[in-house]
Amino acid sequence: MEKKNKTYQQLSKLQQVCLKQNIPFVSYRLPLENETITLVQHHSSPEKLDSLQDIDQKVGFVVSPFSETANHGTYLLEPDCVFFSNDIEGIYIEKLADNNRFLSNEKTSDRSIKTTTSEDFISQVNTATKAMQQGEFHKVVLSKIRLEILNSDFEPTDFFMKLCEKYPHAFVYMMQLPGVGCWLGATPEPLLTIEDNVVKTVSLAGTQLASDSKIESYQWTTKEIEEQRIVTDFVEQTLRSLNIENYTKVGPINYQAANLIHLKTAFEFQKNEFEGRLGDFLKALHPTPSVGGLPKTEAKDFILANEMHDRSYYTGFLGPININKKTDIFVNLRCLQLFDNQFVLYSGAGITSSSIAENEWTETDNKMMTMMNVMMTPKA
């Protein structure tokens, strides 16, 4: 226990120094693992990528928005240091504390952010269902945001540790990058993983609150089953479009992530099926129907035209590339963005032609509780 506490203290000090000095870094913990890995880029700023070509030859951490704009690009943090949670020496923390290179970088502003009202969200859902009934698209994911005041005693490093403890099945991260801002999350949805020459991806859809019931006992409505099928079909079509034929498929099965239960179908194939085409794969998948809709272009256009807020990096993707001989890219769900005195929560729901707007509002509230449950946990 004493060793564990010391490990947490050193990691916390490292994160606090990076936050204070505005140094680009990310700390993350993969699902069902104990090790926290921290990547720090202290000599230069992360690269803004013009394309995802050749990204599978890189080493670092990628973060990409829902939709690329002049304000939101895809960045690659290429670490000067890689710290494992049980191997952080004080001498490195002291050197970073003297690094003033990034203090002049402009921080992301929260001035234009406004909480989504229930009236606006319900109106958008009703507009979407009408468009689907007229055959414009099959599914769209609509999101909302909530701006909240930070408690004066809030500690991002403590919040990160709590996320790791509460959500062992999630990808938990804290990152700070110029142009991106400071984000924390515990996302349940892998976009793809590569390990031991095996590539895995999933389709994830349908949401209900977890209880004490056995995982296999949760039942699903026709709407939720249809929503999951839409996402699964899209993944299969994407694999075929990239000439990936030899894959296995398992599901749909019930899957718990944090306080929620989802339907999941898993896909797996050999890495040599798409050697050198990681960027093409990410571009073809993103945004998946679980965060955008289907057809992809029509649904995305509807979102950009009708949502009143900027999704920024929510429902984008992020994760380590070739760190510890693994690549783990996740969809950025169940997350919040930090500002000086406030934070922004993001959540969304899959809308089909049979959706009931008030139910979708409740679902998005439930998803926000992944973060709020931890935010409201008293300090030890």
What is the secondary structure topology, with strand pairs?
Blueprint: H1 2-21, E1 25-29, E2 37-40, E3 47-49, E4 60-64, E5 74-77, E6 81-84, H2 90-97, H3 118-133, E7 139-149, H4 156-166, E8 171-177, E9 181-187, E10 190-195, E11 198-209, H5 222-241, E12 248-257, E13 260-270, H6 278-285, E14 293-294, H7 296-306, E15 317-321, E16 327-331, E17 335-338, E18 342-351, H8 357-375
Antiparallel strand pairs: 1-2, 1-8, 2-6, 3-5, 4-5, 4-15, 7-14, 7-18, 8-9, 9-17, 10-11, 10-16, 11-13, 12-13, 15-16, 17-18
What's this model, at a glance?
It contains eight helices and 18 strands.
How would you describe what is shown here?
The protein is an alpha+beta fold. It has a single domain, classed as Anthranilate synthase (4-Layer Sandwich). 30% of the residues lie in helices and 30% in strands. The protein has eight helices and 18 strands. The protein has helices at residues 2-21, 90-97, 118-133, 156-166, 222-241, 278-285, 296-306, 357-375, and strands at 25-29, 37-40, 47-49, 60-64, 74-77, 81-84, 139-149, 171-177, 181-187, 190-195, 198-209, 248-257, 260-270, 293-294, 317-321, 327-331, 335-338, 342-351. The strands form two sheets. It has a nine-stranded antiparallel beta sheet with strand order 6-2-1-8-9-17-18-7-14, with helices on both faces. The protein has a nine-stranded antiparallel beta sheet with strand order 3-5-4-15-16-10-11-13-12. The radius of gyration is 20 Å and the shape is globular. The mean pLDDT is 90.
